[in-house]
Amino acid sequence: MDSAHNKSKVVERILNEGRVKRHKFLPSGREIWSVVGSLGDQFVAEGQPFCTCGHFHFGVLGGKTESCIHLDAVRAAKREHSYEMLEIEDADYGRFLFLLTRSVHAQFGSK
Ligand SMILES: [Zn+2]
Predict the structure, then answer these.
(1) Is 101 within the bounds of a domain?
(2) Which residues are found with C-beta within 5 Å of the ion, ligand 1?
(3) d(CA 96, ligand 1 centre) in Å
(4) 104 Cα–ligand 1 center, Å
(5) How many angstroms does the Cα of residue 72 sit away from the middle of ligand 1?
(6) Is the dihedral of CA 78, 81, 82, 84 positive or negative?
(7) Which residue range forms the structural domain that includes residue 41?
(8) 63 domain-assigned
(9) In a domain, 111, yes or no
(10) How many other CB atoms sit within 10 Å of the CB of residue 24?
C-alpha cells in the first residue's frame, strides 16, 4: 500500500540521519530511547508501547492507529542496530528527564 510505503521511507530516513538515540544510564543500565522528530525530541518506550508525540496520544490511544512513526523508527533501529548510543551517568537522570519533558511540553504548548 502507498501509505505503508511512505511510512517505511520516513523510518528509513530517520535511521539514515541518525535520529534514533539510545540513552544508556550507568551504572544502573537503565535505558531510554528517543527519536528526533519533525517537532522535536520524542520519548519512546517501545515495550509499553508509548510515545510522547501528538499522533500517539490522539491516534493510538484514541484507537485510530496502532503505532506512530517514532515507535516504528525505534523498532527498526533495534532490528538494524542503527542508532546513536549515548552513555549518561545515573546522577544526570533527573536532569535528562527534565530537559526531555520540557521539550515535549513545548511541542504541545505550541499547538
Ligand atoms: Zn511518536
Answers:
(1) yes
(2) 42, 51, 53, 56, 68, 70
(3) 19
(4) 11
(5) 8
(6) positive
(7) 2-106
(8) yes
(9) no
(10) 14
